[in-house]
Amino acid sequence: MIDARSLSPIDYDTIGASVRKTGRVVIVEEGPKTGGVSAEFAAGIAERFGEQLHRPVVRIASADVPVPFTPVLENEYRPDEPRIVAAVRRLMQP
After folding, report:
1. Residue 2 contacts residue 53 (beta carbons within 8 Å)
2. I want to staple 27 with a disulfide (CB 3.0 to 4.6 A). Which of 38, 47, 88, 89 is the partner?
3. H or E element: which one contains 26?
4. Conformation bin of residue 15: beta by default, left when phi > 0, alpha when psi is -120 to 50
5. What is the pTM of this model?
6. Alpha helices in the chain (DSSP H)
């Protein structure tokens, strides 16, 4: 797991080492998928390491809806462990 904390600079050396090792990438973010930070990471990874990817980059993000006001709905809105695990399992299938 790589915890990328900023868009500038992006540590593509560390990310590239992981891509070369696994050939797979899962990006998780709390923001919405459309226009989110994960899109920038996915594009940069595909541009730099696309030939080394065994599968397309998978992005897990919040729904493309306004952030709910209540804590219960907000927790449903954000990516959670079951969604992340399911995405990783799909990515690992042959």
Report:
1. no
2. 38
3. strand 26-32
4. alpha
5. 0.87
6. 12-22, 37-49, 71-77, 81-92
